[in-house]
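Standup notes, structure subgroup. Blocker cleared on the zinc ion input:
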Amino acid sequence: MSLFFTQVKSQVTTRQAAERYGIQVNHSGMACCPFHADRHPSMKIDGRFYCFGCHVTGDVIDFTARLFDLPLYDAAKKLAADFNIQPLPPGQSTPIPKLPAAVIERKEEQRVLRILIEYERLLEKWKEEFAPSDPKDENWDGRFVHAVHHLPPLSDAIDRLFSSDPDERKAIMDSIRSTDTIAQIETILNERRQEVKNDGREKDRAA
Ligand SMILES: [Zn+2]
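Run returned:
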């Protein structure tokens, strides 16, 4: 068996496996860690892997085992099958690689996080930019009011999505999915992007 492990490790790097299994590795060999809620790429992936955030580390077989929640031997068999490493141990079929539900859910969490973080930045900007200059002036800008009202629950949701507790993350994802909040936020962000683009064009014309 150890000969088989050695054979697999000598023919596939962790980076090749990660990319094959849908993880984006950037030019400096960094990727968003699939094993914790990762805001910026904090996993170094090359021959082996190491996460500077949650400190998981290992070789290509450890990586695959963790990603697909498999025993090490099954992970090695999967790599041998997916990368056509010969000879396979006797009696092995070649399963079609499929992302497990946990990985798909993690990707969805990261998509939602990206949207919420961008929205949080926008609201923080509004809170500053449209704050009433005179506190006695009751004619507050709607964007300021919106920001003050929505920032606390938004920041709370972001914190909870960064939680290491999967139940906590599931609870917040379920509550987000039960409304059309994300679609509404995306609409606001898209409008905002359009405004920024138009502003740029007007400035170009004025110049
Ligand atoms: Zn990590």
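Discussed briefly. Residues 101-206 form one domain.
Next: hand off to the docking folks.
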